[in-house]
Structure formats: C-alpha cells, structure tokens
Amino acid sequence: MKALLPQTGVWAVAILMLMAHSNAQDLICTAIPNNSYGVNDTFCNTTCFAKGAAETPDTLAIYCTEFAEAAQVCNCTSAPVDCVGTLGQFSPCTASCGGGSQTAVFTITTYALFGGKACAHADGELVIQACNVDPCPSTDFVCLAIPGLPATNDWCASNCWPPGLTAKTFANAHPACTTAGGKSQVCICNNIVTPAVQCLPIPGQTATPEWCAQSCWVGGLPQTIANLVNYCTTDGGQSQVCSCELVGPDIGSNNNGTTSN
Q1: Is the same domain home to 69 and 94?
Q2: What SS3 string covers 21-41?
Q3: Distances (CA, A) of 259 to 26, 50, 195, 201, 226
Q4: Measuring CA to CA, which residue among 15, 22, 13 is closest to residue 56?
C-alpha cells in the first residue's frame, strides 16, 4: 500500500472537526470501491481504529474519514441500532365476559438509528388488546318436570313463564314451577349455569317427590349438591330418605321464589 502522508495542518483541523462529530455508536468500516491504494474491507476493519480503542468517530484513522479527501480509502458508518421499548401494565378489562378491551402505553427507551429495526409501536402509543373473550354464562332458565307428577318437560318449558317474557326470574314464574306452588308444583327450574339437581324419595321411605323437591336444600341457598341437607345424601346414613343426582345443564338458582343472580 502506498504511504499515506498527511499534511500536519490539514490533519489538525480534520481531527478537531471529527471530534466535534463524535458519538458513542460503534462504526462499521468498508473499503471505498476502486480506491487509489487498493485496500479492502479487511484492511479497513483492522486499521481504522487504534488497537483497543473504542470504535467511535473521534478514534478513526484519518484515511477512514471524509477529511482525508483524495487520500480517503475507507468509509465508516455507524452500526445499526435497533429500537428498544417496553409495554406498560394493561388496564383492567372493560368486561368480565363476552369480550372486553384493555389498554397499555408503549414507551421507547432507545430509538432506531442508522437503519436499525423499528419498534412495533410509537413512543407513547396506546396499545389496545381484547380480553375476557369467553361467552358470558346464560341467564335463561330451564324447567323440567318432576318425575311422577302430571307434567312433561315440554309443558314446563312452555308454561313456566308467559310467552314473550324477557325477565325470566322466579318472581315471574308460574306457581306450578316454584315452591310457591306448594302441592301444585309440578316443574323444577334452574338457571343455566351449573347442573341442576333432582331429588326423589328412596323406595320404601315415607318421603314424597314433592317433599324431596322442596326440602333437600337449606332455605334460600342455590340447589346444588354442595347445599343438600344430609338426609338427601349418603352422609345421612340410615336417615337418608331422598336420593339426589345431577339431571341437566342448569345452575346457580334456587326454587323457593328467589334467584341467586
């Protein structure tokens, strides 16, 4: 390689200008195509910086900068810097079920430089995402005929609430479908949230279907297996008079004229 002999005054000015443009970014140096001295990229990568020096503009050899003018053989540019950012904590979901949304703010801590990869969002951008997308539990009611009584499941489904009534609550139910009907109760209704429980007398016991349907739960509690009184479960031992089992996709309500919704 031909010797690169700088003129002292020119280099002094060049170095001052170079230091004024310094930054903390690493640089990548490549040979200028068809340069006068025939140097290649390997030469530039290994000689543009003093050994052990930080790879910043103020540590470049002069022939690696534009200040060398005709003697410049290497071109050095800043290495790409990818954007770095973080997404803050999401806000509470706007709905507990059925599809809601929540937001969080994206903050950039390092901007993309020199062709680096951009962040997915702008600094301060409000990011929105869906949450709690599962369907909400149904609040409709299903009514089944009490076995052994003069009603059918079809009759119960058609008659426990007046046609077209949107507020299907126990307060609006036909008396024959709640314990308010007393001996006239022929249907048992539950809202569709957990399996319904049906209780019938054990053969040979003195209990009746009506008595089991009305008496197997503590008053006011939802009709679930967990709320059965002991004489309607195997825990009752010799005192068990009713046998109860899950009979359909119903949940969370009781049959005494109130609702657990």
Answers
A1: no
A2: CCCCCCEEEEECCCCCCCCCH
A3: 70, 83, 15, 25, 17
A4: 22
Amino acid at 194: T
Least confident of 3-12, 71-80, 93-102, 190-199: 3-12
Q: Which domain holds residue 111?
A: 84-131
Report how far residue 234's alpha carbon sits from residue 230's, in angstroms, rounded to the nearest whole number: 7
What is the model's pTM?
A: 0.38
Specify whether 148 is located in the same domain as 242: yes
102 part of a folded domain: yes
- Out of 62, 78, 94, pick the residue that ends a domain: 78
187 closest CA partner among 250, 138, 233, 252: 250
Separation between Cα atoms, residue 46 and residue 55, nearest integer Å:
11
Report how many helices (DSSP H) and strands (DSSP E) the chain contains, helices first: 4, 9
Using the 8-state DSSP alphabet, how is residue 60 labeled?
A: B
> What average pLDDT does the segment 13-37 reach?
61
